[in-house]
Amino acid sequence: MVHNPVVVAALSAAFLAPLAAGMYSSNSPVLQLSSKNFEEKILKSNHASVVEFYAPWCGHCKSLKPAYEKAAENMKGLAQVAAIDCDEDANRRTCSEYGVQGFPTIKVFKPGKNGKPSIHDYQGQRTAKSIVDFLIDQMPNHVTRVNSKTVDGFLKERNGTSKAILFTTKGVATPLYKALAIDFLGSVTFAQVRDKETEVLKLFGVEKFPTFLILPGGSAEAVVYDGELKKEGMAKFVTKFSKPASKEEEGTESSSTSSSSSSSSAPPPRPTFDSTIPEAPSMEIFAETCGRKICVLVITPDKRPDLTGPEGANYYINHLKQTFPFFQVQGSKLSAEFAQGFSLEKSDKVQLRALSAKRGWYVAYEGDTESEEEMKIWIDKIKMGEIKKVKIPPFPGSNDAPPEPPKDAPAPEEPVKEEPVKEETVKEEPAPEEPAKEAPVPEEPVKEAPKHEEL
């Protein structure tokens, strides 16, 4: 693979602190955890989660990886499939707190009352299908089933907030609809009406199935959704009408017929379980990841903003990561030559640059980092080749030599040699005399994501 030497050298000078690579790459659908974000992403989440506690050297962990990533892809946007590297010094305390004694250990975190999740070990088969089926069963159900006897009470309850109603031929809520109800828990009430409830159908004038609509609250008329019945489009539609419950209504939240649990505090009305943008890795890993494709570099100011919240740039960026790989780097770690070459300003705001190391060009994002629509337009223009690309200029020095690292740059560290596992550390589970093939996905078809997108 051939890279533009100027870009490669410049990026090498920019990333002064190479990071160790875990078992899952930045493009993996698996939510990658650390001790710093474990509480926010798992313990405080309203979504059900499975977490793999692993070590990169573990043979069983490597065997599980294909099935685990496939399960994560299937459950994207519905529930969390996450992993934490217990071999990292910073993460060992968290792994110890949950009693991890062998690898891989998979634990299930299901939201419970008083904001504390119930936690237990996953005992099922380590196949994509088994993990998906199990996680679907663990999803909280905040969807209220409405019929002719309960519709009047449902409409009067919490009348100041929006209500989403799905009219369907199905008797139970699908994983997609459950996930939507969880995403907007505390700001929008979700309900489902069966096609057999003729009185309710007449009340709303519904004649076809499925039909999805919003009651904005108060005396406002219902608004019918006319888009594709997929989670992304439906979530955007609901967002227009979402608002937190008033103090008078917080104590009257309706309960689901199949789940009486309620949240102790109203979370943001948007999904909060996206993984954070990975730090820019060492040059070798960056070149391997981005050499054949376009990557987007997110440059943060010295005083780093919180990129984990649903209202920050990271929320929107994570929704676009499926197009290009995203990395972040702190502005102070970039050399002056690099900053000048990519037209970066000294700013307290987040800056984005899409670049191709192989072709030697970049594109600056000049829109609002908190505007999902503007970022999507920017990404689409890059994909379609409809945006002007700026050639990366030669850096100062003879023969277009790349910039040297800043004077205060630390000397490169010697490669860390992999040490054998000590007896007192967590050991890998012993393999059986006749190893069973854990990793390969079974022949029977796995529930693919499109199936969960159906209503």
From TrEMBL:
GO terms for cellular component: endoplasmic reticulum lumen. It is an enzyme of class 5 (isomerase). PROSITE patterns: THIOREDOXIN_1, THIOREDOXIN_2. Residues 402-413 have a biased composition (Pro residues). Residues 6-141 form the Thioredoxin domain. Residues 245-278, 390-455 are annotated as: Disordered. Its main location: endoplasmic reticulum. Residues 1-22 form the signal peptide. GO terms for biological process: response to endoplasmic reticulum stress. It is found in: Endoplasmic reticulum lumen. It catalyses: Catalyzes the rearrangement of -S-S- bonds in proteins. It comes from the Eukaryota. Its EC number is 5.3.4.1. Belongs to the protein disulfide isomerase family. Residues 253-265 have a biased composition (Low complexity). Residues 414-437, 444-455 have a biased composition (Basic and acidic residues). Keywords: Disulfide bond, Endoplasmic reticulum, Isomerase, Redox-active center, Repeat, Signal. GO terms for molecular function: protein disulfide isomerase activity; protein-disulfide reductase activity. Transmembrane segments: none annotated. This is protein disulfide-isomerase. SUPFAM superfamilies: Thioredoxin-like (SSF52833). Gene3D superfamilies: Glutaredoxin.
